[in-house]
Design goal:
By secondary structure, the chain is of the alpha+beta class. The protein has a single domain, classed as Lipocalin. Helices cover 23% and strands 42% of the residues. An eight-stranded antiparallel barrel has the order 1-2-3-4-5-6-7-8. The longest helix is centred in the N-terminal third of the chain and has 18 residues.
Length: 132
């Protein structure tokens, strides 16, 4: 009986953890849609500074300038790179991060200054808040 209880409790905990995970499907179920090409172009037409937490728990800030340059900073490090809006996605290429490989994310506006982004494979990339 005790073993059955532990299995049920463990299953309930997993359902709670995974049930709370933010996915593109969960945002779409709330009536949200990815930001459009125009919305992203308008947002990044001026300098944008974001505070973020990525999918591995890393936290920091990222600054995107209208000329397509960017800077990301986190406790103990920083990087510079380039960004562009392409096919309705934000594409970033950092000098050191991801070995300089481009990553294009789909972004959802989830609040007045809040955003959630997803990698091409659908996994959570980061949640961020616009600051300044």
């Amino acid at each position: 009986m005790r073993k059955l209880f532990l299995v049920a409790a463990g299953s309930a905990l997993l359902a709670t953890v995974y049930g709370c995970a933010t996915t593109e499907q969960s945002l779409r179920a709330k009536g949200l849609a990815p930001q459009t090409q125009k919305e992203l172009e308008d947002l990044f037409a001026k300098p944008v500074k974001l505070r973020f937490e990525n999918n591995t728990g890393g936290k920091g800030t990222a600054t995107y300038m209208p000329d397509g340059t960017g800077r990301v900073e986190w406790p103990g490090g920083s990087d510079t790179g380039r960004w562009q809006v392409k096919d309705g996605k934000i594409c970033m290429t950092w000098t050191k991060l991801r070995d300089g490989k481009e990553n294009c994310v789909t972004s959802y506006k989830t609040g007045p200054k809040e955003y959630t982004s997803f990698n091409p494979d659908g996994t959570l990339n980061a949640t961020s808040t616009q600051i300044d």
